[in-house]
C-alpha cells in the first residue's frame, strides 16, 4: 500500500463527525460507523459509505481511525466488535481518541500480540469541535516513520499541521501535556472573571480589559466571547476535560502536582452538580455561585 486509498472513521461524536466530513471533502473515499446511526446518515448525504459494524468498516479500509470517548470504547470497538481482526494486512490503525499513556500501551500490546501486521499510530489531536469543523486541529502523531507518507493525506484533511513526537505512545503523552495547559488556561479565565465578580466589578468591564490582552491567546479570546454571551454549550465538555486531567495525574506523583490535583477536585464537584455536559468554561459560572 503506497498511500491511503480508503479511510474508515469509527466514532462520529463531537470530534469524529467533523473530522470524517473533512476527509470526505478532501476527496478521500470514506466509510463511517457510529453507535447511533444519525451522524452516519448525515455523512452519507455528503458522500460517505455507511458500515453496519466496526468490522464491516475496517475490512474495507486502508486506514482506520478510532475517535471515541475513552479506552473502554476503543477496546470494545477493536476487540468485542471485531475491528482489529477485520483490518487488512498492512493497514494503518490511527488511534486518535484521548485514552492516556497506560491504556495506549495496552492497545500497542494488543496489536503486537494479535495483529503485528497492522501499523498502529497513536495520534490524538489538539483542538475542540470548532477547530475540528474548520480543519484547524493539530495532530500529535507518533508511530513508525515509514507510515508518515501514507497517512499524510488523511492527517492533512483533518488538521492544519501534524507534529510527529516519536514512537507510538509519545503522541498520547504530548496530548496530556497539551490538555493540562488548556485546563490551566480555562481555569485562569474562570478565576479571573470570578475574582472580578467578587470585587464588585462589572463583568463587561472585566471582559473588555481581558480581550485583546497580550496574555490572551486566540483560543482564550473565543472563550471570553462565549462567556460574555453566557454561552456554555459544549465545545469541549467539562467531563471530558476532567477525564484528561485525571489521565495525566494518573501517570505522575500527584504530590508534585498539587495545583492540578486541586483543579481536578474543583471540576469534579462541578460535574457532580450536573455541569459535566457543558463546556469546560462553565466553571466560570460555577465559581460565581
From TrEMBL:
It is an enzyme of class 1 (oxidoreductase). Pfam families: NAD_binding_11, NAD_binding_2. Gene3D superfamilies: N-(1-d-carboxylethyl)-l-norvaline Dehydrogenase, domain 2, NAD(P)-binding Rossmann-like Domain. SUPFAM superfamilies: 6-phosphogluconate dehydrogenase C-terminal domain-like, NAD(P)-binding Rossmann-fold domains. Keywords: NAD, Oxidoreductase. Belongs to the HIBADH-related family. This is 3-hydroxyisobutyrate dehydrogenase.
